[in-house]
């Protein structure tokens, strides 16, 4: 598994069967009877303990708070008190798994140099357009620290390297399996495929309802504006957690029978309710969809000119509307790209040309407008008071070539990764089962 993961840890409670008669196939005494007597007080999991000790390694309250604040920062802190309590419990489980991953890697003589962790931290900072020092200060303002993120990075790197050494060499993908998939892809040419992201939470028969409820709360948070990527990175137990749950492009035939119909019915950009699948629950986000082995229109490369007309700071709404109307009328009669500079000059604006604009990189509203546009046509005016009023003029288009089937090696790697992910979940499950965890 890549990156830190969410676990469900069952607390032991002593039970006594009240005149219970065991079902012959039940391995646990007394659990087949609906009337059991609880001896002693159940543990309240929301009570904050000072520490959790995992096989002798301590997780402090500060560790938990700082990791929780990382999650809150990703969601702008806009969560209820109830959700905060639930996230805190998940963070504890997450930190426990990180300890188990690092401990197992150390036991197998897999070590990660501090320099490697620092380099990964710098790469994360660069994603935020910050230096390492700036990112460190940013984290402090959010009530967390670089040490919290670096431990997460350490666990991810150590676990990934351990899997390459202990799991991947024993995972086999047959050439016939890959060829069969290539044949199915070619046979499905022209049908739809989907780019999806996932969050996977393990569950057992005993805790399935609790896991479902927690998965639904994650769905609710994402639908209210929370970051699907952040939840996936922090809490998903799938191997895709490190990349925000991104599964890439898949066809319904590659998905389980439980997931395929849900994916096919999801609107683009939507998130599913929790779906029960073997081993737990999945939450699916539909990022995009296209036709199998067909050129993706979003890969078209456009040559455009952008006309920008500034607005005075004291311009009224009526004045701005007048400029928009005159600019739109002007673009319709300017004669295409060749007249863009003269039109911009007449409005006191400017023109910027770019001949390497990928259609799929534009905002969704502009994608819908520009996909059917002809050379020389212009978009309606758009913009803000601060940025000015803008228009894009289409000067050229290079449509993408017809797509071919993924290579044998690409499909082999995908199938191998899927099998490694399943083995990794079993590996971590065994580590949890054998762990000695003490709360104090």
From TrEMBL:
Gene3D superfamilies: 3.10.50.40, Porin chaperone SurA, peptide-binding domain. Residues 191-288 form the PpiC domain. PROSITE patterns: PPIC_PPIASE_2. Keywords: Chaperone, Isomerase, Periplasm, Rotamase, Signal. It comes from the Bacteria. Residues 1-23 form the signal peptide. Pfam families: Rotamase (PF00639), SurA_N (PF09312). GO terms for molecular function: peptidyl-prolyl cis-trans isomerase activity. The keyword Signal applies. This is Parvulin-like PPIase. The lineage of its organism: Bacteria, Pseudomonadati, Pseudomonadota, Alphaproteobacteria, Sphingomonadales.
